Structure formats: C-alpha cells, structure tokens
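Justification of computing resources. Each target in the renewal requires a structure prediction run like the one illustrated here; the chain below, 225 residues long, is used simply to show the kind of job we budget for.
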Amino acid sequence: MFIVNPYDRFISVMMLTKKSFRIGLYICDQLEEQRVKDILLGYELVNLLVFNLREESINNLDKTILSNSLDLCILDVKLGINTIEKLQYTLLKVSESKLVLYTDPENVDLLPKFMELCSKGFILQGVHETELLFAISAILNEGIFISPLLADRFFQIYLHKRQILRNFSPKELLVVNGLIEGFSYKQIAEQNQISINAVRDYVKKIYRKLNIQSKGQLLYKLHMP
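Resulting structure tokens:
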C-alpha cells in the first residue's frame, strides 16, 4: 500500500510521462466521472488517453476494452460483481492491462471478493487529485494501491468481525459463513453434511448470541463496527 504525501504529485506526473497510456473510465456518477477525467487530462499529458466507458452500454464494454487495448480500467463497484468479473476476464486478454475499482466506505466489505479478481487497486470516491495521480502512476508501474481511508475502514471491519466470530463454535462458524455467502439452509446443510433442522438450530443459537432476529441484522452486525 502506498501512502500519499504532498510531494508525490510531481513524481506521479513524471512517471506518467514515461510511456503512452490508455485509460478507461466508468464511474456511475456523471459529475464525479467528469471530475476524475478533468484531473487526468489537466496536466496536458499528450500521451495519456482517457476513454469514457459510461457512454457505452454495459453489454458492449468488453468489446470497447478489447478494441482500444486499454492499459488500465477504473470501474465503479456499483457495476456489480458479475459485470466486473466479466470485464476482468476481458482485461486479462489485453497485454499488461489492469483493473482498478472506484468505491466508497459502504462497499468496503466487497474488497476481499474483488481482490480475488486480481484488482490492482481501490480508489476512494471523491479522491483528491494528488492521491489519484499517485495511485494510477503506481499501478501503471506495476504497483498496487489502496486509498488509506479505505484500508483503515477495511481493517476496522476485519477486526470487528473477527472479534464477533470468536463467540461461535466451529459448526456455528460454518453456518455463519454459509449465511454470509447467501446460501439457503438446504445448501448449508448439504455442504456441511448436516440436516436442515440442525442448520435451523444453529441459526437460532447464532441469533441468540448476537441478540438479533434476522440474516439482515447478522450481516449488519458483522460489517458495521
């Protein structure tokens, strides 16, 4: 993880001038996307091309990425895990292309899943221009970047979740993990070779320990320190 300081903007711009880069940008909020685009194009880097992917339909994004041989794509997590996973497979077909996710603290619990997709970075919504330039230059030069505020939030949730999970037995943990993954009672039972009634009993014990009454409350309890 890179920590940004006030002197990194000059270094970042210098790094970005060493090679011609093609960047794809898809941020759901139009004003925020324009702000990011203005930052990237604000230094008159003639070798930096920015493609507004939001102008394309979602179904055509993979074709746009391939046809333009993009070096890096900044994608909003609001596109959803399935769309981003599909686009990551497309990016893997382009030599040295990289995926960066644009997110906010409310979606920080999705980071582990997105990390499995080989994302090279996570940029916080509303990012300052210094941090944005440094993140992109670092990633394009084979680094990895997570906005410090996102990293801090991620570890807070991780420590909070680990503390709660200490209260459960090994069997209860298997059921909790199944609920987190969105599996039904039947699926949890089949995966762990127990009966559906046993799953129901474990769920009751889990809810009782946490003083909650639903799966929604469970997810909230685990991800909101």
